[in-house]
Amino acid sequence: MARRVAVVGAGMTRFVRRAQETGKELAWEASREALASCDLSLDRVDAVCLTSAPDAFDGVHMKGEYLSDGAGAFGRPFMRTYVGGGSGVFTAIQAYYTVASGMADVVLAVAEEKMSSTQPHPQGAFLTIFDNVLERPLGPNLLWIFALEMNRYMTVHGLDKRDIASVAVKNKRNAADHPAALLGQADITVDDVLASETLAWPVQRLDVSPISDGAVALVVASEEAARQISADPVWIQGVGWNLDTAYWTNRDLVFPEYVANAARMAYDMAGVTEPRKQIHVAEPYDPFDYKELHHLEGLLLFDRGKAPEAARDGVLDRKGDLPSCPSGGLLGVGNPIAAAGLMKVAELFWQLRGEAGARQVPGTPERGVAQAWGDLMQVGTVVVMGRDGGPPTTARRLDTPPVATPAISLSDAQFRSATGAVDDAIGAEYEWDAGVAVGRFLDGLREGRIMGRECRNCGRVLVPPRMFCERCFRGTDAWVRVEDTGVVQTFSICHVSWDMKPLEEPLLPAVIAVDGSDGGFLHMLGGVAPDDARVGMAVEAVWKPVGERTGSILDIAYFRPVGD
Amino acid sequence: MLEKIARPDEVRRWPGGMPVRHRYTPGVGGDAFFAALRERGVLLGSHCAHCGYTYVPARLFCERCFSELSADTEVGPGGELVSFTIVFAGIEGEPLDRPEMLGAVRLDGADAVLIHRVLEPGEEPLEIGERVEVVVRAEAHRTGSILDVAGFRRTD
Hints:
The structure holds 2 protein chains of 2 kinds. By secondary structure, chain A is α+β, with helices and mostly antiparallel strands.
């Protein structure tokens, strides 16, 4: 039987655009603050759990080991976990099972991100999350994934962009009360969001959380240690995590089933049978405003497509029926990726202890849920936390929200002129091959055919094809020629390149469900004015002339509306 | 089930990379270290009174006990050669015109060791445990970089 596990301390740095501190210095500031918040010295820590998103942000290979001293790992059992954007919440899960299993009594869980080191733009580090053979030749931009998901979510449910934008407004207003916030803004309005620059329609500038530097740490303890350390431990009642398929164009982009699976796992463990009644405060992951709503539905807190109207009606406000992102979230506090996720768990800790100061939700919330999302946009990580009944005993701290002050913000000029700074490029170059299934797929494209792979167990025809079915975990059975027509599942009108430079002509990336298959892939729309593109539109491949085909995804020039 | 490629040279390859560069800034501890090196030509370390350990370069915190540290201790210029290596090949494996010597030195007053080049050791083989000293470039040539230190020179 797993032991009970509690959070007894938390600390964070300010989230800033560009920190003077190195990553390990940020990690130390947050870790020290977390230990100080529960009057603990480092020698009481048995093990350290750390997370940080891609090494490419800091430009340090084996970044976990580099950061380890700032996380207090010297001479201790230490492990970095990493599930992309889901990392911050996952490291709390890692700390949970390290303690629940009896491996350690006191664990420091630390999340750090320093994105400002990456030039010219951190997006460069994300380009390889697109398939190097099937997607990168199309010139993708990370925003495409979100814009495509957002458009489908909006279209299928008939949502009003104003309702979605109200989430950005709520979070930036909430963040105005957070001493660590980068983008708190008490007077922002929905019109401001709707008037901001369109990056990749429907995603506009103020729909997106900012690139940031920062660190967060928690002290996690066994029941016995927790009762000794703290008068008011906050219990980790349930944890869950779950992955969807790695083929993002094969996912249901409307509902995050992987979040629902992770939530069910966490709720089951926590004994939560009616989440809408039993969850009093939520910190869903909000790198984009629509994602908070998407995730609230995935967390089973709203019916599908119903979270946006709740946002509009104030249900998610700090004083609403279900306060969501009372911290200000990623949209307001900032998005140093891994740190932002753990910030959500720290916020629950402060909210449930009544220590959140101006951010405190009314009443005495007894249980909350924090969630993050990441990997290849297919992981959900969920933590349910609660405290023992009765009012919190630590309300003494109400006037001084427990947040570290450091993280010194550097101006552009200070950053450029910093003494001792070094500019370098890792210079990692690769040659990717297509593998067996995609190799045959590309051979087919050269011949003007789209080929799928059939799994006779589940009956699916897989496009892009694979030699194994990831659901049935058996070899697929046969090659099947599918149509070169399909239906637009979603599309975006993209105005910026991956490094955020304006494009002369907008691009129309789309996920095309291929007729005769159970899948689809990313490609471009052409022969249609951006304003005339529609979800659900029937399209056909426009092939390059035979002599120009090379066995590449670009052998299809684009997809155009059928009949044109 | 798998159809093996019989001729690997026929496999199509997609070249690519990750288009990122980095600007590494030295942080709070490093700022103090490089400013002193450039302006005064000295190496600053940080002493942790709790652990009785002196780090070099200077650091913001002690990794052993988490105390906050400052750049409070000037170390060197003399020190002891803790280890060394002679490098004959470059990063791509190419032979170097002149072998390079690198030394790990515990500077006087420090516990941590510093890695840098060993300058013109002469005919006598280097020996672990021998005395060396830091050679700092002339002020006019210092930019606030670890290369403001030219290297270590043997002293006896």
